[in-house]
Each structure stands twice: as structure tokens, then as C-alpha cells.
Design a protein that fits this description.
Blueprint lengths: L21 E3 L58 E3 L6 H12 L5 H6 L4 H5 L3 E5 L5 E9 L3 E5 L5 E5 L4 E2 L19 H13 L4 E4 L2 E5 L10 H8 L8 H15 L3 E7 L5 H16 L4 H16 E2 L7 E2 L2 E8 L5 E9 L17 H9 L2 H7 L8 H4 L11 H14 L4 H18 L3 E3 L6 E3 L3 H10 L3 H9 E6 L2 E6 L2 H30 L9 E7 L11 H31 L13 H8 L5 H10 L5 H12 L5 E3 L4 E6 L2 E6 L3 H6 L4 H8 L4 H13 L21 H17 L2 E8 L12 H11 L1 H10 L3 E4 H8 L12 H11 L7 E3 L3 E4 L3 H103 L1 H11 L3 H96 L5 H51 L8 H54 L1
Parallel strand pairs: 9-23, 10-19, 10-23
Antiparallel strand pairs: 1-2, 3-4, 3-7, 4-5, 5-6, 8-9, 11-12, 13-14, 13-19, 15-16, 17-18, 20-21, 21-22, 24-26, 25-26
GO cellular component, one term: membrane
Keywords: Actin-binding, ATP-binding, Calmodulin-binding, Coiled coil, Motor protein, Myosin, Nucleotide-binding, Repeat
Pfam families: IQ, Myosin_head, SH3_VIII-1_N
């Protein structure tokens, strides 16, 4: 077994261990026994220093304070503490009594396992345990003792006289409720039970048993979970036992050792395995979260619980399947994905439930919480209307809301990326299973042959799975067989038809469960992010023993036997085998090995599984013949006992279980006829087709031997037991490749009631788990081990001398001697060093302190180098800054000089301007003064004239004063009115200014539009003008041609007579008349063109002025502009057509006139010549 799988202790820093310190751990003595030759004996015995008076022992854990609590690198479990005590050795008589008692221990296995010393306890009159007739243990105080009998006082005041050998010593009060059973001085049944009960009563449900965590189901909510606790265990601020601590250890070991880890959770049904697995997953998600996949992993729990858990008589949420959740991590320690593997779903629960139990939760959740529209679509009813659900008369669980749970399941399905369409298909398959149970049959003949009744159940099943109703009736009531080359249809009896119906329902549900797990795994797929590091959490059904145990309990208990062997191999077998292989002086610890029971199951060809498969293949095999065959071949096995009838008993590691073989063969065959598979493959829905393909794929490996039924060859497959055995072997191979961490869940009572602690039930489970053997071997063994190479490589640098060229063994021994590790605290093996609990902590603490000192030296040296470099850098920076600042100062000085010169120039000019302005002011003032003086002189000279008139004006002076005052008031009023009017005008001016800005912006837009229209009009005008000029040019050419013809005729007719001349003039005048008419037409067209262009131009200009506000007019400029454009387009079109017509007419006239002139000319020439 590798060192990675060992449980290493944890300590806080200590500087040294004095030689007289001794460690408590074995319940016998304080002194170390040595053999005659001076070497250490096989064992060492250390007692716990119990005072005589039984009072609290204050010095039990004195010595090194704070020695517990720190987790080191090599520690997989926090809180593995050791008690160190510095006290004198016990007296010789105490040692003699202990040794004498050890020599008198009975050879019985149970006594050897549980009994400790009693003579010391009886002699010192301390408290002891006594077993009452009902099997419970009671704590009493010894009043008196003799050689064979003792008088003991119980807490109720009752005094008993009992045999001294029946007393079991009790631990001191200071050890009550310790968190690790390894700390108990006396390791016996009542002490362990009492310690666990003390913690349970204080809601401390977790207790360590060496490397194993014992978890008691509180059957209530306890305040031990949440983000605060997760953070505390992550930072190691809490060291008490917890699932968080186990999970944290698994994560740290995975990262440190790069080895996959596994957390194996076991226990009876109702012990809390599922909840414990969920708590472990919560801690993994909290520490490894960040990618979002951890939320999906947590959301798989509601789905798997709804489809795989059910209420049983012992547990309201019992897992009816096993699951292994393998969580993968990336290189950075974050969760990168997960994979879920399931084992042995209890399919029979779909069609059959015991009184007081329930089928799978999802059926009741569907009936209670499905939305109204989907309820109508699936035609769902209440749970009590389905036969499969009303068999047990149990439809609800106290404190559980099925409708709310259904909402949580739907939310979880969304999280794991199952589409709404697939969800509806899943609910349809569930409804189809429920309606299958309501299908009834009617007998149709005297041979008890039946056919399915065409009722609501049959119709709904056909509708939900998407098949034809007649095909469904035939598949349920008939069976096709092939005899030779012929196909025969056999009618089924009532029992056969019911079995066929139930088999179809179980197969649909099992395939649906497997499909859901497959979809979840696709959602959680790791893909390229896989790094090979993973932590597997195994939550599998616990050991079961009921009044009637069937095939399911047979497989479940077989799986638990395998897990118990893995537990034994890891903690007992491999541990002790490694001691022996490495030559360690070691006293072997006895434990129960279940290999004989496993051989009973797996031996070939005469094992339970082999005989079951063999009998399942026989055509005439029955449950009774199978039971008789077992009794015939296995009676010699010590773990097997035949019973009456169809029963047999197997002695498991947890006790003897009696199995009833009724239904064993049918359940092992798990037979579904080919007709039912073909029915599913012909369905229109997608899921039944997938289920049929899956079942056909599994049938590719037929079972050897004769077939159970004719016509079933195509549907035969591996038996359930064989397939489960293969899955179990693969599971064990996977677990063997990981470092396991064990959590044993204990159920305190069968009533699922809090604060109720049944000693007998708890003790039975502790015995089954082998908890006390684990503590005993961990406490007396060497849990810490390390190879010589790794030890030398890890701690070699601590040596004072150079040992680089020595072998690893010499280096290891030198390290041990240098640090004064007591020889009894370690042993040197062939390949490894083995240490007692806690010894590696001394070396690890020294190593950490040395590494810390090295880091401090390195940090100081690096700081010195950094400071030297910083000083050089500062000097360089200062020099560079001086150069830069000098250059910058010089540039700034040059700029300052330029600015000074410019300022002088500006000052000169400004002073000149000021002087000129001052001179101008003085000049103006001088002129004013001169004008005033001159006026005064003028008025002085004209003063006589004013005196003459002053006499007449004095009479009216008073009137003028009155008039002037009234005028002044009127002027003030007008001034105020004018100011108010001015303010209004200013406001109006502002408004008008804003409007003007708006008009200007609009005017700019209109100008752009008009400019574009003018450009278009100019282009069109130019095109019309060009057309007109072309017409004029063509007409001018015709005129020139006629003039040339006329000149030729005149030169040729100079010899004509005068009378002929007059006639020629008439002809010429007649020829020029059309020409003048055409010229007038062209001139009219040109004149019309000029007029129209002038009119359109004036109208457009007018509209622009109206638009801009220059001209007031009550019309809409935009609408008038559009109308003007339409008129222009119409005129242009009409004008163009007339121009073309005129051109054509002119062309025709020109041709006719020319021909007529020529004809007349030639006629005159010919007639003159003839004459």
C-alpha cells in the first residue's frame, strides 16, 4: 500500500521533544516494556494516569500546549491529535497488575477484541461499566471488591453484587465526548458507545475513529453547515471532525500527490448516506467552483433522488440504487466536469410496494405538481387513482411538499440542459408507466386466455407512447413464437399477461432512468478539460436485513461484502502485510475477514451467483429447484445454511440474513419478450425507440445454455446478477486505484426520531463497520510511512554535515539521530521508515521553520540587491533629470526673452495709443471749454435784450412752473411707457430673431431645392433650345438649297421671252408661299418658348419670395411649386411634340417644293427646246 493512502497526523509547531515525554495511545501502561536483550519489545504500553478518587484529571493532556490543530502537508486528516504528558512513571505494583491482567485475557475473539484491564480499575475503586440484562451498559462506581466479586453502585442508588471479571473499565471524565476515539484510554464497547452518545446529545454528530469518520444521523437539521463552516474548514480554523474536513483532505492529497481520491460512504438504510454525499459535493463545489459546472453537479441530486429514491419502512428518502459520482478537476484545482455511474436500480418497486412504503418520488411529484395544460395533455389523475401507487396506501411523506419538489426537479432538468421537449417526453413516459398499471384483462375462453380491455388505461398508454392501440393489445395478451419455419401466435393466461404488462412498465422506467443519467453525463462531460485528477464519491445502498429478504437485498448485501473487503484490505490487510514485507517488528491485530463469504458468492462453478445463473437458464427451473440446488452444493460452507422451503441463510460480516428465493429466477432473468421490444421500436415517440434500441443492443450477448422460453432468443441478455457482478468488479478496480477516505454512517434508532439513541442498534453497526479495530490498529501501529528516498530528499537538507554522497538509508538514520527521535517512536524497514502517530510532525515543523528561515534570508538578500539597484537607478535618474531640466530651463529662458521683447514692443504701442487718446480727450475738453466760454461771452453781450423782456415774463413765471411740472410728470410717464414698450419690442425682437433664424434655415433649404429645380429647368430649356436651333438650321439649309436652284434657273433662262418671265414670277411666288408659312410657324414656336420661359421664371421667383417671407401672399408655396412643376412638365411635353410635328411638316414641304420646282424647270427647258 502506498504512503498516499495513509492517514498522517497533524500538529502545531514545537521546537523539540524532551526525552522523558511519553505519548498516550495504548490503554495498558505508561512504561515501555523492553525485552531481556535490551531491545524494544513487540508492543509498548502507555496508560492515562487515572487518579484514585475518580475526579477530573487535570494533567492528562498536559505537556505540549496547542500540539493539536495544525494541518501539515503530509496530513490527510485534520485533528489526529496526540496527547503528550510529562509525569513520572507509575509504580511497579501498578505495572505488575497491568501485566498480570494482560496475561489473563481470554482467548475468545469477542473478549480479545473489546476487553481491557479491569484489575487496576477494581483495585482503585473507580467507575466501571456493567452490562444490564436488557443488553444496555450502565456506568457505576465500585464500592468494594474481592478476588471474584465486586459491589457496584448505579446512578439510581441501586447497589449490585457482580463478578469482577464482568466489569469493564470506564474512561476519566475529562475524556467524555472527545472528537477522536484514539484519545480514549480504555477502548471498549461501552466507552465508545458512551463517547458517541455524549457528542450526539450535543448535536456533534461527527466523531473520528482514526482515519474513519463516524457520522450519526441526527434526524433533524443541525447548524454545522453553510458558507461560514466551509470557509472555516478551508482555512483550518476549525479542527473538529466533519465531512468538510474529509473532503478538504481529499482535495489537498489530490493536488499534492497527483493521485485520484475516493470518498466511500457506507451504512445501513436510513443512516444518512445520501445527505452526507450531498454535503461532500457542496464542499467540493465551494472549493473547486468558478467555472459554473459545479452548479450543474449539485443540481443532479434532486433529479437522481426523484427518479431513484423512495420511501421505505426505515427511511423516508431511501436510495434504491447505487451511484458513483466522479468529479474531475483542472490543473488549477477547479471543477472541470463530472461523470455519474449507477448500479442496480430496484425496478420491482415500480409495480409492487409494501404496505406503508411508496414507489419512486417522481410519480407522486408528477401527480401533485404538473401544470394544468400538461396534466390535460397527459390525462393525469391523482396518485390514489393508479393501481401501482395505491397498493401501499401511502401517498405522502410528513413534511415533504411533492408539488414544490416537482418544481425543483423541473428547474434542475433545465440546469442540466434537458430541453422542454425532452422533459415533456419524460413526463409522458412516467404517465404511460402509471397508466400501464391500470390496464386490466378479461378472460375470453375456458383455458383462461385473456385479452386487454379497451378502456381508458389502454387508450392513454397507446397515446402516450405513440403506438397503435391494437398492436398494444396484441403485445400484452399474445406472444409470437417461431417453431421451425413457422410463426405461431400464443395467447397468454391472466398471470402471464400481468407479468408481461409489469415487465414492460419496469423496462420503460429502467430505460428512462438510464437515459436521464446519460443525458446528465453529456451535460457534465469533461471533454478536453480532463487532467486525470478526480475525486469519486460513492453513495451505495447499505447492508439490509428485513423480515423478508428478496433478490434486491441479495445483490445489495453482496455489494456491501465487496466494499467491506475493500475497507478491510485498506485498513487491515494491506496495513499489516506491508509491516511484514518491510520487516517491521509488529504484533498482528485480529480482524474479521469476509473472504469466505465472498467466495460463497463468487466461486465457480459452485457459488451462489453461478448457481443462480445456471438455474435461470434452465427451461424448467423454479425458485424451489434453485433453493434445493443451493442446499445440495453449498451445505459444507460455513457461511451458508439451508432453511425450510425456498429459504436459505448467509452469514454476512454484519450478521446472518435469511433470503426467500421467491422471484429470484424471474428477477435475475429480467425477461422482456421480443414482442414488447418491437412494440416500443414501432412507436412514433422518440424515447420508446431509443429504449428499444438500447435493449436490442444489450441482447447481442446471449446467455449460454438452453433458453428460458421459446421465441425469446432475440431478447435474452446477461443476467442481472452477472451484469451487477461485472459492474461491481469495475467499481472495485476504480476504487483500488484511488486513495480512499471512509465515512461510516450510523443510524441511532429505527424510529427516525431525533435525540433517541439505541445502544444495541448503534453497537451492531459499529461492529459491522469494524470501527474499533480501525482505532486499535491506527493507535498501536505506524500510520505514517515514507520511503527512504523521499524521506532523505524531503528532510536531507536539515542535516548539519554534507551527506550528498551517502545512500538514502544512511541519510534517513542521520536525520533521526540528529533530531533525537526516540527509537520506540519509529522503525526502519527495508524500503520505508515507519513512524508512530505524530512523529513526522516534529520533522515537518522543523522543515517548515527552516524553509521559512531560508526564505527570510533569500528575501533579505534580494531586498539588499533591490535596494542597491534602486540607489544606482536613482543616481542615474537624478543625472538624467539634471540634463533634462537644464535643457528645459534654457529653452524656457529663451522663450522668456522673446516674450519680454514682445512685451516691450506691445507696451510701447499701448502707451502711444493711450497718449494719443489722452491728447484727443484734452483736445475735446478744450473745445468744450472754449464753446462754453464763447457762449457765456455771447450771452453776456446780449444781456440787455434779455432784461427788456424779463419784465413781461415774470407775470407768467408761476404758470410756467406749473406747466413745466405737469410736463415733467407726463414725460416721466411716457418714459416709463416707452421703456415697457421697449422691453416688449425687445422680446418680440428676440422671438422674431428666432423665427428669422428658422426662416433662414428653411430659406437655405428652399434655395437648395430651387437651385436644383432651376438647374433641371435650365437643362430642359437648353434641350428645347438645342432642338429649336437644330430645326432652324435644317430650315436654313433647305432655304440655301432653294436659293441655289433659283440662281441656276435664272442663268439658264436668260434667253426666255418677257411673257415667259411673268409666268415664272407667278410660279416663284407660289413656291415661296409655303416657305414663308413655315418661317412664321417657327417664329411663333420660338416666341412661345420665350414667353413661357419668362412666365415660368417669374412664377418660380415669386414663389421663392413668398417662401422666404419677402412677399405676403395667402397661398401655399410648396403646393403651388408642385403645381407649377406639373404645368411645366405638361407644357414641355406638348411643346416637344409640336416641335417634332413642325419639323416633319417642314421637311415634307421642303421636299415637295424642290421636286415641283425641278419638274417645272425641266418642263420649261424641254418645252423651250422643242419650240
Amino acid at each position: 500500500m502506498s504512503q498516499n493512502s495513509q492517514a498522517l497526523p497533524s500538529f502545531q509547531s514545537i521546537q523539540s521533544l524532551p526525552g522523558d515525554f511519553r505519548f498516550t495511545g495504548s490503554p495498558a501502561s505508561d512504561c515501555l516494556e523492553k525485552s531481556d536483550d535490551g531491545s524494544l519489545g513487540n508492543t509498548y504500553l502507555i496508560s492515562s494516569s487515572i487518579p484514585e478518587n475518580g475526579d477530573s484529571r487535570d494533567g492528562v493532556f498536559e505537556g505540549v500546549e496547542g500540539y493539536r490543530g495544525q494541518v501539515i502537508e503530509d496530513s490527510p486528516y485534520s485533528g489526529n491529535a496526540i496527547s503528550v504528558e510529562d509525569r513520572p512513571l507509575i509504580v511497579d505494583e501498578d505495572l505488575d497488575s497491568v501485566v498480570s491482567h494482560l496475561s489473563s485475557i481470554s482467548a475468545s475473539r469477542n473478549e480479545c477484541r473489546w476487553d481491557d484491564t479491569t484489575s487496576y480499575t477494581a483495585k482503585k475503586k473507580l467507575q466501571s461499566w456493567i452490562q444490564l440484562p436488557n443488553g444496555n451498559w450502565e456506568l457505576g462506581k465500585i464500592l468494594a471488591t474481592s478476588s471474584s466479586e465486586s459491589v457496584i453502585s448505579l446512578p439510581g442508588g441501586k447497589v449490585l453484587n457482580v463478578k469482577t471479571e464482568s466489569l469493564v473499565p470506564a474512561n476519566p471524565d475529562i475524556l467524555d465526548g472527545v472528537d477522536d476515539l484514539m484519545q480514549l484510554s480504555y477502548l471498549n464497547e461501552p466507552s465508545v458507545l458512551y463517547n458517541i452518545q455524549c457528542r450526539y446529545n450535543q448535536d456533534m454528530i461527527y466523531t473520528k475513529a482514526g482515519p474513519v469518520l463516524v457520522a450519526i444521523n441526527p434526524f433533524k437539521k443541525v447548524s454545522l453547515y453553510g458558507n461560514d463552516y466551509i470557509e472555516a474548514y478551508k482555512l483550518k480554523s476549525i479542527e473538529s471532525p466533519h465531512v468538510y474536513a474529509i473532503t478538504d483532505t481529499a482535495i489537498r492529497e489530490m493536488v499534492r500527490d497527483e493521485v485520484n481520491q475516493s470518498i466511500i460512504i457506507s451504512g445501513e438504510s436510513g443512516a444518512g448516506k445520501t445527505e452526507t454525499a450531498k454535503i461532500a459535493m457542496q464542499y467540493l463545489a465551494a472549493l473547486g467552483g468558478g467555472s459554473g459546472i459545479e452548479y450543474e453537479i449539485l443540481k443532479t441530486n434532486p433529479i437522481l433522488e426523484a427518479f431513484g429514491n423512495a420511501k421505505t419502512l426505515r427511511n423516508d428518502n431511501s436510495s434504491r440504487f447505487g451511484k458513483l459520482i466522479e468529479i474531475h478537476f483542472s490543473e488549477t484545482g477547479k471543477i472541470s466536469g463530472a461523470n455519474i455511474q449507477t448500479f442496480l436500480l430496484e425496478k420491482s418497486r415500480v409495480v409492487q410496494c409494501t404496505e406503508g412504503e411508496r414507489s419512486y418520488h417522481i410519480f407522486y411529484q408528477l401527480c401533485a405538481g404538473v401544470p394544468t395544460d400538461l396534466r390535460e395533455k397527459l390525462n393525469l389523475r391523482s396518485a390514489d387513482e393508479y393501481k401501482y401507487l395505491r397498493q401501499s396506501n401511502c401517498y405522502s411523506i410528513t413534511g415533504v411538499n411533492d408539488a414544490e419538489q416537482f418544481r425543483i426537479v423541473v428547474e434542475a432538468l433545465d440546469v442540466v440542459h434537458i430541453s422542454k421537449e425532452d422533459q415533456q417526453s419524460v413526463f409522458a413516459m412516467l404517465a404511460a408507466v402509471l397508466w400501464l398499471g391500470n390496464i386490466s384483462f378479461t378472460v375470453i375462453d375456458n383455458e383462461n386466455h385473456v385479452e386487454a380491455v379497451t378502456d381508458e388505461g389502454l387508450f392513454n398508454v397507446a397515446k402516450l407512447v405513440g403506438c397503435d392501440i391494437e398492436e398494444l393489445k396484441l403485445a400484452l395478451s399474445t406472444r409470437k413464437m417461431r417453431v421451425g419455419n413457422d410463426n405461431i401466435v400464443q395467447k397468454l393466461t391472466l398471470s402471464q399477461a400481468i407479468d408481461t404488462r409489469d415487465a414492460l412498465a419496469k423496462s420503460i422506467y429502467a430505460c428512462l432512468f438510464e437515459w436521464l443519467v446519460e443525458q446528465i453525463n453529456k451535460s457534465l462531460a469533461v471533454g478536453k478539460r480532463r487532467t486525470g485528477r478526480s475525486i469519486s464519491i460513492l453513495d451505495i445502498y447499505g447492508f439490509e436485513s428485513f423480515d423478508r429478504n428478496s433478490f434486491e437485498q441479495f445483490c445489495i448485501n453482496y455489494a456491501n461484502e465487496r466494499l467491506q473487503q475493500h475497507f478491510n484490505r485498506h485498513l487491515f490487510k494491506l496495513e499489516q502485510e506491508e509491516y511484514i514485507q518491510d520487516g517491521i517488528d509488529w504484533t498482528k491485530v485480529d480482524f474479521e475477514d469476509n473472504q469466505n463469504c465472498l467466495s460463497l458468492f463468487e466461486k465457480k462453478p459452485l457459488g451462489l451467483l453461478s448457481l443462480l445463473d445456471e438455474e435461470s437458464t434452465f427451461p424448467n427451473g423454479t425458485d424451489l429447484t434453485f433453493a434445493n440446488k443451493l442446499k445440495q452444493h453449498l451445505s459444507s460452507n460455513s457461511c451458508f445454511r439451508g432453511e425450510r422451503g425456498k429459504a436459505f441463510s448467509v452469514c454476512h460480516y454484519a450478521g446472518e440474513v435469511t433470503y426467500d428465493t421467491t422471484g429470484f429466477l424471474e428477477k435475475n432473468r429480467d425477461f422482456l419478450h421480443l414482442d414488447s421490444i418491437q412494440l416500443l421500436s414501432s412507436c412514433s415517440c422518440r424515447l420508446p425507440q431509443i429504449f428499444a434500441s438500447s435493449m436490442l443492443a444489450q441482447s447481442e450477448k446471449p446467455v449460454a445454455g438452453p433458453l428460458y422460453k421459446a421465441g425469446g432468443a432475440d431478447s435474452q441478455k446477461l443476467s442481472v446478477a452477472t451484469k451487477f457482478k461485472g459492474q461491481l468488479f469495475l467499481l472495485m478496480q476504480r476504487l483500488e486505484s484511488t486513495t480512499p477516505h471512509f465515512i461510516r454512517c450510523i443510524k441511532p434508532n429505527n424510529l427516525q426520531s431525533p435525540k433517541l439513541y439505541e445502544q444495541g442498534l448503534v453497537l451492531q453497526q459499529l461492529r459491522c463497520c469494524g470501527v474499533l479495530e480501525v482505532v486499535r490498529i491506527s493507535r498501536s501501529g505506524f500510520p505514517t510511512r515514507m520511503s527512504h528516498q523521499k524521506f532523505a530528499r524531503r528532510y536531507g537538507f536539515l542535516l548539519l554535515e554534507n551527506v550528498a554522497y551517502q545512500d538514502p538509508l544512511s541519510v534517513s538514520v542521520a536525520i533521526l539521530h540528529q533530531f533525537n527521535i526516540l527509537p520506540e517512536m519509529y522503525q526502519v524497514g527495508y524500503t520505508k521508515l515507519f513512524f508512530r502517530t505524530g512523529q513526522i510532525g516534529v520533522l515537518e515543523d522543523t522543515r517548515n521553520r527552516t524553509l521559512h528561515g531560508i526564505l527570510r534570508v533569500q528575501s533579505c538578500f534580494r531586498g539588499h540587491r533591490a535596494r542597491c539597484y534602486l540607489k544606482e537607478l536613482k543616481r542615474g535618474i537624478a543625472t538624467l533629470q539634471s540634463f533634462v531640466r537644464g535643457d528645459k530651463t534654457r529653452k524656457e529662458y529663451a522663450v522668456t526673452l522673446q516674450r519680454q521683447r514682445a512685451a516691450i514692443v506691445m507696451q510701447k504701442r499701448m502707451k502711444g495709443r493711450i497718449a494719443k487718446k489722452k491728447l484727443r480727450c484734452i483736445n475735446d475738453a478744450s473745445i468744450v471749454i472754449q464753446s462754453v466760454i464763447r457762449g457765456w461771452l455771447v450771452r453776456r453781450c446780449s444781456g440787455d435784450i434779455g432784461l427788456l423782456k424779463s419784465g413781461g415774463m415774470k407775470a407768467n413765471e408761476s404758470d410756467e412752473v406749473l406747466v413745466k411740472s405737469s410736463f415733467l410728470a407726463e414725460l416721466q410717464r411716457r418714459v416709463l411707457k416707452a421703456e415697457a414698450a421697449l422691453r416688449e419690442k425687445e422680446e418680440e425682437n428676440d422671438i422674431l430673431h428666432q423665427r428669422l433664424q428658422q426662416y433662414e434655415s428653411r430659406w437655405s433649404e428652399y434655395e437648395l431645392k430651387m437651385r436644383s429645380m432651376e438647374e433641371v429647368w435650365q437643362k430642359q430649356m437648353r434641350s428645347l433650345q438645342s432642338s429649336l436651333s437644330i430645326a432652324k438650321k435644317s430650315l436654313a439649309i433647305d432655304d440655301s438649297e432653294r436659293n441655289s436652284d433659283a440662281s441656276v434657273n435664272a442663268s439658264d433662262d436668260r434667253d426666255y421671252s418677257s411673257d415667259m418671265g411673268s409666268s415664272d414670277k407667278r410660279v416663284e411666288s407660289n413656291g415661296l408661299r409655303p416657305m414663308s408659312a413655315s418661317l412664321s410657324v417657327i417664329s411663333r414656336l420660338a416666341e412661345e418658348f420665350e414667353q413661357r420661359s419668362q412666365v415660368f421664371g417669374d412664377d418660380a421667383k415669386f414663389l421663392v419670395e413668398v417662401k422666404s417671407g419677402q412677399v405676403d401672399a395667402s397661398l401655399d408655396p410648396d403646393r403651388e411649386l408642385r403645381r407649377l412643376k406639373q404645368m411645366f412638365e405638361a407644357w414641355k411635353k406638348d411643346y416637344g411634340s409640336r416641335l417634332r410635328e413642325t419639323k416633319v411638316i417642314l421637311h415634307k414641304l421642303g421636299n415637295e417644293d424642290g421636286n415641283a420646282v425641278k419638274r417645272k424647270w425641266w418642263g420649261r427647258r424641254n418645252s423651250s427646246r422643242i419650240n
